[in-house]
Model the fold of this input.
Amino acid sequence: MTESENNAVLFRSTTVAPASERFDFFCDAICSTFVGIQPERLSNRVFNADFTSYEIDGCHLVTIRAPGHRASRDTRHLRHMPDDSLFLNFQPGQPYRYRANDEDTVVPPAAVRLIDNARPFSLDFLPGSNLNLFSLRLPRNLLGGRNTPATIAQINNHLGQAPVGRLVAAQYQLAALAVRSGDANVVKAMGRALINLVSCLAENVAPEVPQSDVALMKIWAEARLSDPDLNVTSIAKQFGVSVRTVQARFREDGSGVSEWVRQTRLEAAMTALRDPGQKTKPASTIAVQAGFRSIEHFNRAFRAQFGVTPVQARRLAQS
Done:
């Protein structure tokens, strides 16, 4: 394996090793950075791979070019090789599969994902392709005290949906271009900006809430009633807990999630229909604003809940 170190930059390549030994050499190359993460071959292709690591103020920006494979960290590795680092991953050209606990998702190309090395997970990269992965190893204390699984889940939610997530992805694109330029000083400058963005993102995620506090879950959901896709999964993702946890909290508070969402939407529609300021607004518009996809479904649910149609409810309020 070729290896060079210069100005806190480490480069290794498997290409000079015998073909039969290249995968083992690759595993040795990454073990000091990706502690306790076990690569697994998914094909018999010759394992030609490059590994470059840039040290940036105690963090490490790593690039890996290799055949598609699986990388996993299970409970055995957690016990024998404890490590609580975080990895901010970015792969511009190919999707990959991420699995952890009750989550199983495909990460799209050029999406940024924060991975917790203190918890079991697995990554599957397409076996018939070559991965080109960028991974920023971060110390857990970079997030301050906001480094719990719930906060990390919220950060991933922001990375995937919020405008700041697009900024992080754009900065990662710049860091990737800097890597291709071969200028270590530019790489480190781009990497520092990326680290600062992640730190700012962690400071601005929603405050962590106790898992037992269903009231805050409901406040968040009420602000999004107009979204027809609002459901138990989106609530769980926002608060960094499992679907089963959300279901249990709502049941403890007296109703199921779907039941509560439906009833809250109907109550919001009833309030709008009774509002003199909205007397000219069509009932179909009110239904959409309350999160109903179908006016027919809205009319049936409204009558079942209140014993009158939406039109009758508006007339009664105005009489």
